[in-house]
Amino acid sequence: MAKTEPGWELYRSFLAVMREGSLSGAARALGMTQPSLGRHMRELEETLRAPLFARSPQGLAPTDLAHELVPHAQAMASASAALRRAASTGQNAIAGVVRITASDVIGAEVLPPILAAFRQQHPGIVIELSLSNQAEDLLRRDADIAIRMVRPTQGALVARHIGKIALGVYAHQRYLEANGRPKTMADLAAHALIGFDRETAYIRSMRPAGIPYTRENFALRTDSDLAALAAIRAGYGIGVCQVGIASRDPALRPLFADSFLLHMDAWVVMHEDQRRSARTRALYDHLATALSEYAKPLATRVRRPPAARKSR
Protein backbone atom coordinates (compact mmCIF):
# COMPACT_ATOMS: atom_id res chain seq x y z
CA MET A 1 0.00 0.00 0.00
CA ALA A 2 1.46 3.34 -1.05
CA LYS A 3 2.40 5.73 1.72
CA THR A 4 0.06 8.73 1.85
CA GLU A 5 1.77 12.08 1.31
CA PRO A 6 0.98 14.69 3.99
CA GLY A 7 -1.31 17.44 2.74
CA TRP A 8 -0.39 21.13 2.80
CA GLU A 9 -2.86 21.78 5.62
CA LEU A 10 -0.76 19.55 7.91
CA TYR A 11 2.43 21.43 7.11
CA ARG A 12 0.63 24.74 7.55
CA SER A 13 -0.37 23.66 11.06
CA PHE A 14 3.19 22.45 11.70
CA LEU A 15 4.63 25.85 10.72
CA ALA A 16 2.16 27.61 13.00
CA VAL A 17 3.22 25.44 15.94
CA MET A 18 6.89 26.11 15.22
CA ARG A 19 6.19 29.84 14.98
CA GLU A 20 3.92 30.15 18.03
CA GLY A 21 5.60 27.55 20.25
CA SER A 22 2.38 25.91 21.43
CA LEU A 23 -0.72 24.15 20.15
CA SER A 24 -3.00 26.78 21.69
CA GLY A 25 -1.10 29.67 20.13
CA ALA A 26 -0.99 27.97 16.74
CA ALA A 27 -4.71 27.22 16.90
CA ARG A 28 -5.50 30.89 17.62
CA ALA A 29 -3.24 32.05 14.77
CA LEU A 30 -4.97 29.73 12.28
CA GLY A 31 -8.50 30.17 13.61
CA MET A 32 -8.74 26.48 14.49
CA THR A 33 -9.66 24.59 17.65
CA GLN A 34 -6.78 23.17 19.66
CA PRO A 35 -8.06 19.55 19.34
CA SER A 36 -8.19 19.91 15.53
CA LEU A 37 -4.67 21.28 15.39
CA GLY A 38 -3.49 18.51 17.72
CA ARG A 39 -4.98 15.95 15.32
CA HIS A 40 -3.04 17.57 12.47
CA MET A 41 0.21 17.16 14.39
CA ARG A 42 -0.50 13.53 15.24
CA GLU A 43 -1.45 12.78 11.63
CA LEU A 44 1.72 14.42 10.33
CA GLU A 45 3.90 12.48 12.78
CA GLU A 46 2.14 9.22 11.89
CA THR A 47 2.56 9.85 8.17
CA LEU A 48 6.23 10.73 8.57
CA ARG A 49 6.67 7.91 11.09
CA ALA A 50 8.76 10.12 13.34
CA PRO A 51 8.10 12.45 16.30
CA LEU A 52 8.24 16.17 15.62
CA PHE A 53 7.84 17.45 19.18
CA ALA A 54 8.81 16.26 22.64
CA ARG A 55 5.89 16.98 24.95
CA SER A 56 6.46 18.06 28.54
CA PRO A 57 4.71 20.16 31.23
CA GLN A 58 6.76 23.11 29.95
CA GLY A 59 5.31 22.83 26.43
CA LEU A 60 6.51 21.51 23.09
CA ALA A 61 10.19 21.07 22.25
CA PRO A 62 10.84 20.62 18.50
CA THR A 63 12.95 17.60 17.55
CA ASP A 64 15.90 17.81 15.16
CA LEU A 65 13.61 16.53 12.39
CA ALA A 66 11.16 19.37 13.03
CA HIS A 67 13.92 21.95 12.58
CA GLU A 68 15.03 20.23 9.35
CA LEU A 69 11.48 20.34 7.98
CA VAL A 70 10.96 24.09 8.56
CA PRO A 71 12.69 25.46 5.41
CA HIS A 72 10.88 22.90 3.22
CA ALA A 73 7.53 23.72 4.81
CA GLN A 74 8.26 27.44 4.36
CA ALA A 75 8.94 26.79 0.67
CA MET A 76 5.52 25.13 0.45
CA ALA A 77 3.94 28.15 2.18
CA SER A 78 5.62 30.51 -0.29
CA ALA A 79 4.47 28.40 -3.23
CA SER A 80 0.92 28.32 -1.86
CA ALA A 81 0.88 32.11 -1.47
CA ALA A 82 2.30 32.56 -4.99
CA LEU A 83 -0.39 30.27 -6.40
CA ARG A 84 -3.10 32.32 -4.69
CA ARG A 85 -1.64 35.56 -6.07
CA ALA A 86 -1.38 34.10 -9.58
CA ALA A 87 -4.96 32.82 -9.39
CA SER A 88 -6.35 36.12 -8.11
CA THR A 89 -7.00 37.09 -11.76
CA GLY A 90 -5.76 36.06 -15.18
CA GLN A 91 -2.12 36.62 -16.06
CA ASN A 92 -2.91 39.39 -18.56
CA ALA A 93 -5.36 41.31 -16.39
CA ILE A 94 -4.21 44.56 -14.76
CA ALA A 95 -5.79 43.40 -11.51
CA GLY A 96 -5.06 40.96 -8.72
CA VAL A 97 -2.42 40.70 -6.00
CA VAL A 98 1.27 41.72 -6.21
CA ARG A 99 3.61 41.25 -3.26
CA ILE A 100 6.55 43.65 -2.76
CA THR A 101 9.42 43.25 -0.33
CA ALA A 102 11.58 46.20 0.69
CA SER A 103 13.66 47.45 3.59
CA ASP A 104 11.92 49.09 6.54
CA VAL A 105 12.89 52.64 5.60
CA ILE A 106 12.20 52.31 1.87
CA GLY A 107 8.86 50.63 2.58
CA ALA A 108 7.69 53.07 5.25
CA GLU A 109 9.22 56.35 4.08
CA VAL A 110 9.67 56.17 0.30
CA LEU A 111 7.13 53.78 -1.17
CA PRO A 112 3.79 55.08 0.23
CA PRO A 113 3.42 58.09 -2.13
CA ILE A 114 4.75 56.00 -5.03
CA LEU A 115 2.21 53.27 -4.37
CA ALA A 116 -0.56 55.81 -3.87
CA ALA A 117 0.10 57.18 -7.36
CA PHE A 118 0.07 53.65 -8.77
CA ARG A 119 -3.24 52.97 -7.03
CA GLN A 120 -4.83 55.87 -8.91
CA GLN A 121 -3.82 54.26 -12.21
CA HIS A 122 -4.59 50.63 -11.31
CA PRO A 123 -7.27 50.40 -8.59
CA GLY A 124 -7.79 46.72 -9.37
CA ILE A 125 -4.37 45.73 -8.05
CA VAL A 126 -4.02 44.76 -4.40
CA ILE A 127 -0.52 45.29 -3.01
CA GLU A 128 1.02 43.21 -0.25
CA LEU A 129 3.97 45.08 1.27
CA SER A 130 6.48 43.03 3.26
CA LEU A 131 9.06 45.12 5.11
CA SER A 132 12.29 43.48 6.19
CA ASN A 133 15.98 44.23 6.05
CA GLN A 134 16.50 40.54 5.22
CA ALA A 135 16.34 39.76 1.49
CA GLU A 136 13.33 37.58 0.74
CA ASP A 137 13.83 34.78 -1.80
CA LEU A 138 12.32 35.67 -5.17
CA LEU A 139 13.36 32.31 -6.59
CA ARG A 140 11.19 30.67 -3.91
CA ARG A 141 8.44 33.21 -4.71
CA ASP A 142 8.35 34.77 -1.23
CA ALA A 143 7.53 37.98 -3.12
CA ASP A 144 6.86 39.09 -6.70
CA ILE A 145 9.01 42.24 -6.65
CA ALA A 146 11.92 43.20 -4.42
CA ILE A 147 13.72 46.49 -3.86
CA ARG A 148 17.27 45.63 -2.93
CA MET A 149 20.45 47.47 -2.03
CA VAL A 150 22.64 44.58 -3.23
CA ARG A 151 22.75 43.55 -6.86
CA PRO A 152 21.15 40.11 -7.35
CA THR A 153 23.36 37.47 -8.93
CA GLN A 154 20.81 34.75 -9.76
CA GLY A 155 20.33 34.35 -13.50
CA ALA A 156 16.56 33.80 -13.20
CA LEU A 157 16.04 37.29 -11.77
CA VAL A 158 15.41 40.46 -13.78
CA ALA A 159 16.97 43.51 -12.16
CA ARG A 160 16.83 47.21 -13.06
CA HIS A 161 19.39 49.52 -11.49
CA ILE A 162 17.50 52.60 -10.31
CA GLY A 163 20.56 54.61 -9.33
CA LYS A 164 22.46 55.54 -6.20
CA ILE A 165 20.52 56.73 -3.16
CA ALA A 166 22.47 59.43 -1.33
CA LEU A 167 23.05 59.26 2.43
CA GLY A 168 24.21 62.14 4.60
CA VAL A 169 24.82 63.02 8.24
CA TYR A 170 21.88 64.84 9.85
CA ALA A 171 20.70 66.25 13.17
CA HIS A 172 17.47 67.92 14.19
CA GLN A 173 17.55 71.65 14.78
CA ARG A 174 16.56 71.10 18.43
CA TYR A 175 19.59 68.93 19.03
CA LEU A 176 21.96 71.45 17.44
CA GLU A 177 20.48 74.33 19.43
CA ALA A 178 20.95 72.38 22.67
CA ASN A 179 24.35 70.84 21.96
CA GLY A 180 26.03 72.99 19.33
CA ARG A 181 26.96 72.20 15.77
CA PRO A 182 30.09 70.08 15.21
CA LYS A 183 32.61 72.00 13.11
CA THR A 184 34.72 69.02 12.06
CA MET A 185 34.07 65.31 11.76
CA ALA A 186 36.42 64.73 14.67
CA ASP A 187 34.02 66.81 16.80
CA LEU A 188 31.38 64.11 16.37
CA ALA A 189 33.10 62.04 19.06
CA ALA A 190 31.80 64.54 21.62
CA HIS A 191 28.19 64.27 20.37
CA ALA A 192 25.36 61.77 20.77
CA LEU A 193 25.74 59.53 17.72
CA ILE A 194 23.00 57.18 16.52
CA GLY A 195 24.12 53.94 14.89
CA PHE A 196 23.92 50.18 14.61
CA ASP A 197 23.89 47.58 17.37
CA ARG A 198 25.26 44.65 15.38
CA GLU A 199 27.73 45.29 12.60
CA THR A 200 27.08 43.36 9.40
CA ALA A 201 29.29 42.90 6.34
CA TYR A 202 27.11 45.41 4.47
CA ILE A 203 27.51 48.01 7.22
CA ARG A 204 31.29 47.48 7.17
CA SER A 205 31.34 48.07 3.42
CA MET A 206 29.33 51.29 3.89
CA ARG A 207 31.15 52.53 7.00
CA PRO A 208 31.82 56.26 6.63
CA ALA A 209 35.51 57.09 6.53
CA GLY A 210 36.98 59.80 8.70
CA ILE A 211 34.28 59.90 11.37
CA PRO A 212 34.00 57.96 14.65
CA TYR A 213 31.20 55.74 13.30
CA THR A 214 31.77 52.67 15.48
CA ARG A 215 29.55 50.91 18.01
CA GLU A 216 31.64 52.14 20.93
CA ASN A 217 30.91 55.77 19.98
CA PHE A 218 27.14 55.46 19.69
CA ALA A 219 24.85 57.00 22.29
CA LEU A 220 21.95 55.04 20.76
CA ARG A 221 22.44 51.62 19.20
CA THR A 222 19.70 50.01 17.13
CA ASP A 223 19.47 47.65 14.18
CA SER A 224 16.15 49.20 13.18
CA ASP A 225 16.69 51.88 10.56
CA LEU A 226 13.20 53.22 11.29
CA ALA A 227 14.04 53.60 14.99
CA ALA A 228 17.29 55.39 14.12
CA LEU A 229 15.43 57.75 11.80
CA ALA A 230 12.81 58.43 14.50
CA ALA A 231 15.58 59.20 16.99
CA ILE A 232 17.16 61.73 14.62
CA ARG A 233 13.77 63.40 14.13
CA ALA A 234 13.21 63.46 17.90
CA GLY A 235 16.45 65.36 18.47
CA TYR A 236 18.21 62.49 20.23
CA GLY A 237 21.45 62.94 18.33
CA ILE A 238 23.30 62.78 15.02
CA GLY A 239 22.87 59.97 12.52
CA VAL A 240 23.00 58.90 8.90
CA CYS A 241 19.83 59.42 6.85
CA GLN A 242 18.78 59.23 3.21
CA VAL A 243 19.05 62.69 1.67
CA GLY A 244 15.69 62.31 -0.08
CA ILE A 245 13.93 61.62 3.22
CA ALA A 246 15.71 64.33 5.20
CA SER A 247 14.97 66.94 2.53
CA ARG A 248 11.25 66.75 3.36
CA ASP A 249 11.81 68.13 6.86
CA PRO A 250 13.50 71.55 7.03
CA ALA A 251 14.24 70.96 10.74
CA LEU A 252 16.64 68.15 9.80
CA ARG A 253 19.94 69.89 9.16
CA PRO A 254 22.69 68.35 7.02
CA LEU A 255 26.18 68.26 8.50
CA PHE A 256 29.35 68.29 6.39
CA ALA A 257 27.26 68.26 3.20
CA ASP A 258 30.21 69.55 1.17
CA SER A 259 32.64 66.91 2.37
CA PHE A 260 30.62 63.84 3.31
CA LEU A 261 28.18 61.85 1.20
CA LEU A 262 27.59 58.09 0.90
CA HIS A 263 25.84 56.45 -2.01
CA MET A 264 23.79 53.27 -1.81
CA ASP A 265 23.07 51.38 -5.03
CA ALA A 266 19.51 50.17 -5.44
CA TRP A 267 17.72 47.75 -7.77
CA VAL A 268 14.13 46.76 -8.51
CA VAL A 269 14.04 42.99 -9.01
CA MET A 270 11.54 40.37 -10.12
CA HIS A 271 11.63 36.75 -11.29
CA GLU A 272 11.85 36.46 -15.08
CA ASP A 273 8.58 34.48 -15.13
CA GLN A 274 6.80 37.58 -13.78
CA ARG A 275 7.32 39.34 -17.10
CA ARG A 276 4.27 37.41 -18.32
CA SER A 277 2.12 38.90 -15.56
CA ALA A 278 0.65 42.21 -16.70
CA ARG A 279 -0.06 43.43 -13.16
CA THR A 280 3.42 42.60 -11.86
CA ARG A 281 5.09 44.13 -14.90
CA ALA A 282 3.00 47.31 -14.54
CA LEU A 283 4.02 47.75 -10.89
CA TYR A 284 7.65 46.83 -11.63
CA ASP A 285 7.88 49.53 -14.33
CA HIS A 286 6.14 52.09 -12.09
CA LEU A 287 8.51 51.40 -9.19
CA ALA A 288 11.58 51.54 -11.42
CA THR A 289 10.56 54.92 -12.85
CA ALA A 290 9.51 56.49 -9.54
CA LEU A 291 12.50 55.20 -7.56
CA SER A 292 14.90 56.32 -10.29
CA GLU A 293 13.46 59.82 -9.84
CA TYR A 294 13.84 59.52 -6.05
CA ALA A 295 17.48 58.45 -6.41
CA LYS A 296 18.37 61.50 -8.51
CA PRO A 297 20.20 64.39 -6.84
CA LEU A 298 17.68 66.90 -5.48
CA ALA A 299 18.70 69.60 -7.92
CA THR A 300 17.95 67.44 -10.98
CA ARG A 301 14.60 65.97 -9.96
CA VAL A 302 11.52 66.64 -12.07
CA ARG A 303 9.43 69.37 -10.47
CA ARG A 304 6.09 67.90 -9.33
CA PRO A 305 2.75 69.68 -9.59
CA PRO A 306 1.70 71.42 -6.35
CA ALA A 307 -0.95 68.78 -5.54
CA ALA A 308 1.57 65.94 -5.84
CA ARG A 309 4.11 67.75 -3.65
CA LYS A 310 1.45 68.50 -1.05
CA SER A 311 0.46 64.82 -0.82
CA ARG A 312 3.95 63.90 0.33
From TrEMBL:
Q: Which organism is it from?
A: Dyella lipolytica
Task: Please give the PANTHER family that the UniProt record associates with this protein.
Answer: HTH-TYPE TRANSCRIPTIONAL REGULATOR, TRANSCRIPTIONAL REGULATORY PROTEIN
* Protein name listed in UniProt: LysR family transcriptional regulator
User: DNA-binding among the record's keywords?
Assistant: yes
Keyword annotations: DNA-binding, Transcription, Transcription regulation
> Which Pfam families does the annotation name?
HTH_1, LysR_substrate
Question: According to its UniProt record, which protein family does this protein belong to?
Answer: Belongs to the LysR transcriptional regulatory family.
Q: Which residue numbers delimit the HTH lysR-type domain? A: 12-63
